[in-house]
């Protein structure tokens, strides 16, 4: 899979741009604040219908503009697929093969991307919410079923929390309705939890291999999914887990009404990354944390290939300068001749010529993109 064409209209600092990309390595070079990251973000938004940088869609629209439009042509083994996403004050409209999609969940998955940026270290160092968002975004690209279940779960969770607040303030009394919401939440929560565990188990297989290669087999990386149900009591099928969630909601009902919020479910779960059996978030060195984050992100590439049958597009936003020579070399070797890659940098000196050969180089200047004559030297 690769993105052959991209058109932007009124997107951030781009009035209008039309770019044709190489199926291999694309290097975006330019000074800071010229639009390199905006271009990578546009590809990410085209794939996932949301930004990794902001939750405010208005920020994607050019100043004083009414809408932003992203159009792309995705090349797959089965043929080409035109994609279009329009962001406006009224919301988002997505098209696949020029046909508007009724739901964004039907659109996501047409273009799969893996983004690696300096802030991805937060996957290891950040809060549980960061790791949950990472899981939901990445697995949602690979599985339409998971995307549907997590969307339904979040929607019902919002309704349930609103109703719990009404009960807390004594603006409502109907515990039967709370039970209905609890039953629905338990059903979707069970499906989400089972899928997360299965996906993480598959991702761990790839991440372990990469981590051992980077550390020259001195370290073993393992994942541990943490939920409010102890591992020794956890039932790993959706039906059994559904019943366990129901029991938990019943036992937590008084506390949840008192606090006005849902205290149980996958929205409170976490993932621990263990290096040689020790929690790298709490006890790992900065080098171990960086290696863990790199292994996890690179594992996505092979996992997406395994799940979808095609490699994703790789977006590298100014990460080479953040990695030492060993990790940088391993990163570059991982995607060379395998994955279409977009790499932003302020200088071609950061790009190793012995690893990356004949990239297509683009110069980004104040919202314009031109093919550069420069080569990696």
Give a written overview of the molecule.
This protein is an alpha/beta fold and 377 residues long. It folds into two domains: 1-112 and 310-377, Rossmann fold; 126-308, Up-down Bundle (Glutathione S-transferase Yfyf (Class Pi), Chain A, domain 2). The chain is 43% helix and 23% strand. The protein contains ten helices and 15 strands. It has helices at 36-48, 104-107, 122-125, 128-142, 144-168, 175-214, 238-259, 280-283, 286-308, 325-335, and strands spanning 2-11, 14-20, 25-29, 67-76, 79-88, 91-96, 99-100, 113-116, 221-226, 270-275, 278-279, 313-317, 341-345, 360-365, 368-371. It has a six-stranded antiparallel beta sheet, with helices on one face. A six-stranded mixed beta sheet has the order 8-12-13-3-14-15, with helices on both faces. A hairpin with a 2-residue loop joins β6 and β7. α4 packs across α5 (144-168) and α6 (175-214) crosses α7. The longest helix is centred in the middle third of the chain and has 40 residues, at 175-214. The radius of gyration is 22 Å and the shape is globular. It starts with a strand and ends in a 6-residue tail after the last strand. The mean pLDDT is 90.
């Amino acid at each position: 899979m690769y993105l052959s064409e991209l058109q932007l209209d009124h997107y951030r600092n781009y009035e209008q741009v039309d770019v044709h990309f190489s199926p291999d390595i694309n290097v975006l070079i330019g000074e800071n604040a010229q639009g390199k990251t905006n271009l990578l973000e546009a590809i990410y938004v085209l794939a996932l219908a949301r930004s990794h940088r902001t939750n405010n869609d208005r920020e994607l629209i050019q100043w004083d503009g009414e809408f932003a439009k992203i159009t792309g042509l995705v090349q797959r083994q089965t043929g080409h697929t035109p994609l279009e996403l329009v962001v406006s004050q009224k919301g988002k409209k997505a098209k696949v093969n020029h046909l508007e999609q009724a739901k964004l969940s039907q659109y996501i998955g047409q273009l799969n991307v893996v983004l690696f940026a300096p802030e991805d270290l937060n996957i290891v160092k950040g809060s549980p919410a960061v790791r949950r968002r990472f899981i939901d975004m990445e697995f949602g690209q690979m599985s339409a079923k998971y995307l549907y279940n997590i969307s339904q779960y979040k929607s019902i969770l919002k309704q349930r929390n609103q109703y719990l607040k009404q009960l807390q303030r004594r603006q409502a009394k109907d515990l039967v309705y709370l039970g209905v919401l609890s039953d629905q939440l338990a059903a979707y929560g069970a499906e989400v939890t089972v899928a997360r565990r299965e996906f993480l188990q598959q991702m761990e297989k790839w991440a372990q291999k990469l981590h051992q290669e980077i550390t020259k087999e001195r370290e073993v990386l393992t994942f541990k999914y943490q939920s409010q149900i102890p591992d020794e009591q956890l039932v790993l099928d959706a039906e059994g887990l559904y019943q366990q969630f129901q029991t938990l909601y019943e036992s937590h009902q008084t506390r949840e009404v008192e606090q006005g919020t849902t205290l149980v479910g996958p929205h409170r779960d976490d993932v621990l990354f263990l290096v040689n059996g020790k929690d790298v978030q709490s006890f790992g060195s900065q080098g171990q944390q960086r290696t863990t984050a790199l292994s996890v992100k690179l594992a996505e590439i092979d996992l997406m290939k395994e799940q979808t049958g095609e490699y994703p597009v790789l977006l590298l936003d100014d990460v080479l300068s953040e990695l030492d020579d060993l990790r940088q070399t391993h990163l570059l070797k991982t995607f060379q001749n395998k994955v279409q890659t977009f790499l932003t940098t302020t200088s071609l000196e950061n790009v190793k010529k012995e690893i990356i050969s004949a990239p297509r180089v683009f110069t980004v200047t104040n919202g314009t993109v031109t093919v550069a004559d420069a080569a990696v030297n």
